[in-house]
Write a structure and sequence with these properties.
This protein is mainly β. It has 2 helices and 8 strands; from the N terminus they run ααββββββββ. The protein has one domain. An 8-stranded antiparallel β-barrel has the order 1-2-3-4-5-6-7-8. Strand 6 and strand 7 form a beta hairpin. The longest helix has 8 residues.
Length: about 150
């Protein structure tokens, strides 16, 4: 079973997340400064809705270094939940190259690794950000780490 936390990457690759996909990912609002991108994602939970049914993904972007970048946690139902507790699912990092500034995810689940998945990130100036890969886009909101994304949109 694929880890639910890798759904940001899967949603972008497939291009279908109900209610949040857009047709285009323009370059006018791309976050190109690595420090700004780090400050945007760091110590925040990226919340991706699956429409009216809840959260597709709740990924906490900690600023605690690990071997591949910084720790990435799936909030799930929170630290104290006995059935589906928060857990580390991989790492995230920021890099700049000829292709621009991107965030890269490397997921690990039970010894299986998937990725790397790299995305340009755009500030939509409406309280949302977009993860873009080519013309595919997934729109997300940000919440502080530690409390999940809250009630479904």
């Amino acid at each position: 079973m694929k880890s639910q936390s890798s759904l940001i990457a899967v949603a972008i690759l497939v291009g279908t997340v109900a209610g949040v996909a857009r047709a285009d990912c323009g370059s006018a609002t791309q976050i190109t400064d690595p420090l700004t991108l780090f400050q945007t994602l760091g110590n925040n939970t990226v919340c991706v809705s699956n429409g009216s049914h809840g959260w597709e993904s709740q990924e906490e972007h900690l600023t605690v270094p690990d071997a591949s970048g910084y720790q990435l946690f799936d909030y799930k139902r929170g630290t104290t939940d006995p059935i589906d507790p928060r857990k580390q699912v991989g790492s995230w990092s920021i890099s700049t190259s000829d292709a621009g500034t991107v965030v890269t995810y490397l997921y690990s689940d039970g010894g299986q690794t998937s990725g790397p998945y790299s995305f340009a990130v755009h500030n939509n100036t409406d309280g949302t950000i977009s993860f873009c890969s080519g013309a595919k886009e997934v729109v997300a909101t940000l919440k502080p780490i530690g409390s999940g994304c809250g009630a479904a949109p």
